[in-house]
């Protein structure tokens, strides 16, 4: 593995470790309306992004990205997709559905496989079909046994899978900081509408958790920026299949936090459902590794 790939793998592991800590961090903001929190999160992220651009003198790089209409609109789309992901994740954690957000990120590899078929026209290998079927059975068991569709988990899974696919399209031509800055700026209007609606309905709740909540909101820009920048840097350096392996770190951390710290209910049907999903994740991983090692290596050049 070259230094470039090692750096990419390190960035990916760091990004998912940070995302695994976010449910713990969000406990600082309990009592704040979810939509309002997203509005503050985007606003603080924009401030942090432009501060980083100024510190690193990245204005020229960002102007270069903006000259490409294709890259700019792709980043605008990516920003709105990740806004959906943030919203589902924050509302899930603040409404004591941490395990459901964990389910979403466990399902993400399956979503990536499905998107590869639907969007990129790829064909599934036999083991991938088995993995998708097991994942679907797992979700079905939870729906039947638990009496409701895990909407938060499904939205988290599909939104982040789509985000990864979009980021891969511009990974080679857009640096991490410019991409993050353009994405967060693009969703500022939508997030301000969310903030305004939340304040109109519930009033300003940012002080509901006292000074701890205010400091938590203030630090949200840094908490958001760091893993997203690392994720963008990773997707530029390593294949998406490698990123898929590292992503299990965050949902494992989230699952352990939800089940054993927050003590969310884990009836038998939820254990069975998660077991099917974990089996499907194992199938995807085995298939990806096997496919990678089966690919013929290029012949050395003739002397």
UniProtKB/TrEMBL annotation:
Annotated localization: Cell membrane
Keywords from the UniProt entry: Cell membrane, Membrane, Transmembrane, Transmembrane helix, Transport
Assigned protein family: Belongs to the EamA transporter family.
Membrane topology term: Multi-pass membrane protein
Domain of life of the organism encoding this protein: Bacteria
GO cellular component, as recorded: plasma membrane
Boundaries of every EamA domain copy: 8-143, 152-285
Descriptive protein name: EamA family transporter
Main localization (coarse): membrane
Keyword Cell membrane carried by entry: yes
Membrane-spanning segments: 7-26, 38-60, 72-91, 103-120, 127-143, 149-166, 186-205, 211-233, 240-259, 271-290
One of the Pfam families matching this protein, by short name: EamA
